[in-house]
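## retry 2 of 3
previous attempt timed out at serialization; input unchanged, resubmitting
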Amino acid sequence: METITFYSYKGGVGRTLALANIAVYLSRFGQNVCVVDFDLEAPGMHYKLPQFYGAPIENGLVDYIYEFVSPTGSMPGSLTKFSMKAEKTNENYGDIHLIPAGNVLSAEYWQKLTSIDWHSLFYKEGGEGIPFFLELKEKINTEIKPDFLLIDSRTGITEMSGLCTSVLADKVVFLITNNRENIEGSRQILRGIQKAKRLKGQKPVEINFVLTRIPMPDDDEGEKIEEKIIADIRNFLNEDTESLDEQLNISEISVLHSDRELELAEAVRLNQKIIKDTPLAKDYVSLLSKIIRKNLSNLK
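## retry succeeded, writing output
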């Protein structure tokens, strides 16, 4: 099981929609996928994945955590009541499982979320947060058995985002838009991920950097402008630092171009039987091939 976290320093960059497209496309190549919504304060994965849109949600990740941290709590058992499995539209497709944040339309969800003491879970002496979530990851591996575990992380600098990017992930897809606050904040987060201690046996986190929501070039001049934007961002991220463990070496920046149709209504571009030939659909396929570094035709 390969674990890939989708993260952004700020919201509004298309992170969750990118994850949904990658999940659906991996399934089309026969890969079993599990998606976990860790964006607990603003969950939306169940809206983006068409297989789960409108499906009733009874329990999810918040309920799983609450069972453990509540005064009478204990380690939750099977993931069955906390996860959902999509109905296949093609027998050759892989399974898609979703562990949603929970029933966000209920008051109980928000009561449970606000009652969780994250500080005690992660920072108090003897805090069991890291082992608890590592056990959850292992439970996903043994019960659901996905080829890929895809995590939709919370934005910003939080316990959840740190857990998702530095502890659970094998790879991080790091999405930004072209503005100063995104780029400067992202550089600090990237340096933090690079310095974070990994568990014994874990390889360093692989970063896949993605610039999103810039217009598709219409001509050679537009292509030159895009190339300069990418070069300027890469140079800024890779600026020399006094500390070697903070020095970044981002060699490649992928691009997800803007799509005017998605401004009217969001939709998964890679869900159709025949993929619509749009720049963004091509961008998603290109990004996936870079993330998994395999020929997609060999995934079947």
